[in-house]
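User: Here's a protein and a ligand (pyridoxine-5'-phosphate). What would the complex look like?
Assistant: Let me lay out the input and then the predicted complex.
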Amino acid sequence: MIRLGVNIDHVATLRNARGESYPSPVQAAAFAELGGADNITCHLREDRRHIRDADVELLKRTIQVPLNFEIAATDEMVRIASSTKPHAVTLVPEKRQELTTEGGLDLSQSSKKLGDQIHALRDLGIVVSLFVEPDVKDMIAAKKLGAQAIEIHSGHYCRAMQDARTTAEQLALLKPLQEAARVAHDQGLQVHVGHGLNYSQAHWMQLVPHLEEANIGHAIVARAIYVGLTQAVREMKALLNDPQFRPSVGG
Ligand code: PXP
């Protein structure tokens, strides 16, 4: 089964847009759990544009499923993660001006500092995942740094899927994700994926070998406006796991 991590950042974005106390990302997490969310994911950005420190504390105390805490690899964020002690930390690159995370971590110059941060979090019993591009050398670098999991950045894949018209094109786009997943698994890393997945392509993730978890936010929160969050989560989980939605690619 592919676990679904529901990212509730966008609920906080809506709350903050009017400076109100609603909608609450913490209440949203409870509805997501009712729909079958396996994890709740939130990203505490350095500029606190959506999730706030108090949200993280409340989420940790109230959700029944594991918390996946996304953070930039800064001293401040590692300190907050160390005191929150979520089930998992996903380290992501962060730029102030970006609308959302634009790419995976640059692991080309393996930094001692990043390795130390990973080990410090692991020592607290936290599972450490690195958000990386679907690039084989990053899988190897992630393992060397001490990560236990990688989250493959699917953003570019999702963009390209918008223009793919034939099954051959769709399959070709999936190849790098499949290859990265195979190598990561061979290295002993848990394989996660995330970013940009929506209701028109998430079912393709059924063809990614060894995939254990998908983290999805924007599409689920957007669909929740029409059908409610519980139903939106239920539908996404089915796309990821129900054999009836597995792409039929012949051969
Ligand atoms: N995974 C990571 C590492 C992310 O930064 C994000 C966006 O916050 C997501 C998953 C979810 O992306 P989306 O909102 O496009 O589903």
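Summary: The chain is about 45% helix and 15% strand.
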